[in-house]
């Protein structure tokens, strides 16, 4: 027991309790002071915390409590043991709880801050989503309005309806007090009030287009807010105490059509705009929102597109109407031209026959008169009549050829002929005239020039004779040279005729003919006019009034038909000229065949009369009938004449060797006569030769004659020499079809 009583505790119990209280008060004070610091940090970091004053109050309370406990450190007094134990226990528990709370707040506050941060982020995101949804809804609403407006605007392509519909729909959609459209005047210097929303009849007054506010709007692609007091915004008089509503203006591009064509897109003039002015109600505090301005801009663009479509439609309809008018005019002109062509052809056909019939009488009687005894003076007169008649016959042929060339009815008569003989015949025909004028005419044919060729012999001879005839006509003294050779490929092209493209083909060649004279020559500036019909060189025409001006024009067309080219070269007046033409001819497969259809057209030197040859002549025209009979009688023929088909049927017999008939006389069907004669005489050697003696030059007459079995066609007029040649060839070959 003593030993136990000797062991004393290091700290007395009361002192130990005091120590515990002292330590507890220290930790309580420390916890109290740390909690406000943590709360201050939390409030500072949590900018959106809504109850800051509560935290401040709570912090002050804790500070005061902490200060109270801190003060207790210096106010310890001895109490009873029970009170000391209770106080110690309470303080220890308070210290434990306070420290635990302080430690827990250290861990909880960062979590609370992160939650608040996420909450703030989510709130911001939610607000952003709300704004985006608002924009989407606004855009959807704007799009719906735009679609609705576009549908209404484009429901018509009438310009006035488009503009009026635009104002009405904008006013209804945006609840506008007024909406107006200013259009540029024709001069482009002013804007005119053309359309308004509320006024049925706009005033129509104008403002200068150079106003600063107008330039500001025209220079911007967006809607521009303008002053309600500017000239273009004073659309209605102000009434009452309300301030005018906000006004915006936007430009509307106008399509400017210039030289609109079907395949060309019109040009858009960037300087021509209309001005659309929109005014909010005056009795409200409304302002223009962004989506409303975007709606106005989109509608302005849609109006521009609709106006462009309307302008294109108006222009296309105008072009269509103009085209229809032109088509009607062209159709009328075509019908008139066809009527004129038919009338001309009918006229030429009648005049051809009617002119050739008296020409036949004049030439035939003149040639018969030449065979009689005449005084030199009388013979000169007869020769003059005969030459003049031949010239008139040539003119008739030229007019008919030109007419058929122009309407495209003339076709080449392709056949094999003696090319060298054509040159010699032209030379023989021209020599008598040249000898009278004492001109030397030389013919030079290249050794490689084929003797036979395939082409239109008559048209080639007509062209060559016309060119050589012009050289003789306009040459008073000197010489004329005719050269014919095969054109080489390098000499085919002529820079003066870029449209002439010679294409060498197998079994074909290009004949080049040059006729050079030492005559009066031609001015270079007059050369292009030589190939114009009824046109002559004035200097030449003054010295020589003969000729119609058709020769070279017809030659040019003949040469073009033969896929060639013709031109004239001359260094000037008094220096002569050279006529050159190139034509395309074929090479016959067998050049040495004896059956080539070349018949020399030389004067008949053998049998000049045909005594006892029985000939029947059928012609309704008494003069022509008498003239033909006179020619045949002069040649020794036994001639019988009839004037009708019935008479011909009655008198024709196997004794008649030749029957001449005019197949183009009204009221007489010569083709029926030919068919009847064929039926009457079934044996060929008993049937007379049937020859059409006609003044018609169309190919249809020749085809019809061949169709009914006629043996020949002779074209009026007929001279004594021609009749002699015709009978000789007819009796020798039993067939003779003269080229039309």
TrEMBL record:
Compartments, as annotated in UniProt: Endoplasmic reticulum membrane
Cofactor(s) listed in the protein's UniProt record: Cu cation
Catalytic activity: ATP + protein L-histidine = ADP + protein N-phospho-L-histidine
One example of a Gene Ontology biological process annotation: negative regulation of ethylene-activated signaling pathway
Domain Response regulatory, residue spans: 614-731
Topology of this chain in the membrane: Multi-pass membrane protein
Ranges for domain Histidine kinase: 350-589
Superkingdom as given in the UniProt entry: Eukaryota
One Pfam family from the record: HisKA
Cofactor detail note: Binds 1 copper ion per dimer.
Function recorded in the entry: May act early in the ethylene signal transduction pathway, possibly as an ethylene receptor, or as a regulator of the pathway.
Family stated for the protein in its record: Belongs to the ethylene receptor family.
Protein's UniProt name: Ethylene receptor
Biological source species: Citrus x changshan-huyou
């Amino acid at each position: 027991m003593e030993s136990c009583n000797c062991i004393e505790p290091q700290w007395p119990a009361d002192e130990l309790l005091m120590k515990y209280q002292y330590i507890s008060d220290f930790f309580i004070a420390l916890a109290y002071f740390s909690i406000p610091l943590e709360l201050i940090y939390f409030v500072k970091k949590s900018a959106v915390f809504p109850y800051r004053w509560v935290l401040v109050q709570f912090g002050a309370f804790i500070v005061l409590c902490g200060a109270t406990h801190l003060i207790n450190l210096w106010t310890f007094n001895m109490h009873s043991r029970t009170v000391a134990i209770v106080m110690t226990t309470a303080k220890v528990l308070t210290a434990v709880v306070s420290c635990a709370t302080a430690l827990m707040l250290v861990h909880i506050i960062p979590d609370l801050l992160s939650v608040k941060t996420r909450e703030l982020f989510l709130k911001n995101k939610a607000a952003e989503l709300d704004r985006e949804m608002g924009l989407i809804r606004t855009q959807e609403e704007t799009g719906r309005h735009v679609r609705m407006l576009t549908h209404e605007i484009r429901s018509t392509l009438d310009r006035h309806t488009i503009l009026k519909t635009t104002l009405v729909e904008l006013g209804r959609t945006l609840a506008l007090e007024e909406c107006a459209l200013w259009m540029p005047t024709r001069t482009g210097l002013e804007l005119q009030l053309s359309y308004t929303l509320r006024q049925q009849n706009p005033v129509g007054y104008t403002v200068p287009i150079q106003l600063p506010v107008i330039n500001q709007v025209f220079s911007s692609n967006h809607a521009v807010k303008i002053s309600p007091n500017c000239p273009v915004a004073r659309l209605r008089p102000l009434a009452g105490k309300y301030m005018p509503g906000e006004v915006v203006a936007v430009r509307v591009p106008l399509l400017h059509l210039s030289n609109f064509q079907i395949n060309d897109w019109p040009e858009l003039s960037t300087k021509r705009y209309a001005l659309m002015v929109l005014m909010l109600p005056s009795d409200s505090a409304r302002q223009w929102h962004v989506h409303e301005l975007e709606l106005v801009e989109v509608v302005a663009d849609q109006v521009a597109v609709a106006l462009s479509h309307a302008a294109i439609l108006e222009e296309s309809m105008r072009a269509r109407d103009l085209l229809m008018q032109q088509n009607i005019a062209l159709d009328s002109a075509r019908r008139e031209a066809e009527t004129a062509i038919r009338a001309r052809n009918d006229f030429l056909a009648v005049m051809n026959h009617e002119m050739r019939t008296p020409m036949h009488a004049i030439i035939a009687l003149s040639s018969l008169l030449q065979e009689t005894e005449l005084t030199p003076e009388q013979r000169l007169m007869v020769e003059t009549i005969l030459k003049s008649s031949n010239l008139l016959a040539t003119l008739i042929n030229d007019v008919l050829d030109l007419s058929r060339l122009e309407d495209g009815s003339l076709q080449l008569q392709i056949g094999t002929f003696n090319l060298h003989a054509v040159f010699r015949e032209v030379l023989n025909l021209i020599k008598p005239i040249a000898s009278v004028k004492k001109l030397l005419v030389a013919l030079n044919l290249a050794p490689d020039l084929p003797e036979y060729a395939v082409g239109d012999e008559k048209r080639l001879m007509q062209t060559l004779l016309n060119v050589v005839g012009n050289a003789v006509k306009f040459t008073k003294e000197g010489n004329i040279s005719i050269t014919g050779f095969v054109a080489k490929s390098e000499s085919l092209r002529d820079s003066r005729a870029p449209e002439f493209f010679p294409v060498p083909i197998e079994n074909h060649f290009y004949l080049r003919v040059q006729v050079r004279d030492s005559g009066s020559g031609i001015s270079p500036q007059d050369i292009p006019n030589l190939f114009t019909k009824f046109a002559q060189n004035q200097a030449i025409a003054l010295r020589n009034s003969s000729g119609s001006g058709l020769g070279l024009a017809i030659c040019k067309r003949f040469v073009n038909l033969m896929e060639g080219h013709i031109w004239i070269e001359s260094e000037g007046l008094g220096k002569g000229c050279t006529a050159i033409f190139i034509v395309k001819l074929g090479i016959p497969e067998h050049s040495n065949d004896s059956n080539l259809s070349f018949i020399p057209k030389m004067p008949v030197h053998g049998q000049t009369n045909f005594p006892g040859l029985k000939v029947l002549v059928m012609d309704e025209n008494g003069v022509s009938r008498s003239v033909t009979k006179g020619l045949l009688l002069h040649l020794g023929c036994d001639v019988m004449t009839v004037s009708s088909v019935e008479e011909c049927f009655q008198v024709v017999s196997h004794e008649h060797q030749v029957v001449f008939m005019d197949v183009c006389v009204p009221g007489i069907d010569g083709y029926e006569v030919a068919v009847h004669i064929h039926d009457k005489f079934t044996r060929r050697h008993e049937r007379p030769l049937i020859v059409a003696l006609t003044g018609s030059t169309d190919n249809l007459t020749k085809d019809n004659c061949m169709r009914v079995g006629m043996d020949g066609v002779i074209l009026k007029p007929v001279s004594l020499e021609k009749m002699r040649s015709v009978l000789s060839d007819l009796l020798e070959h039993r067939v003779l079809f003269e080229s039309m």
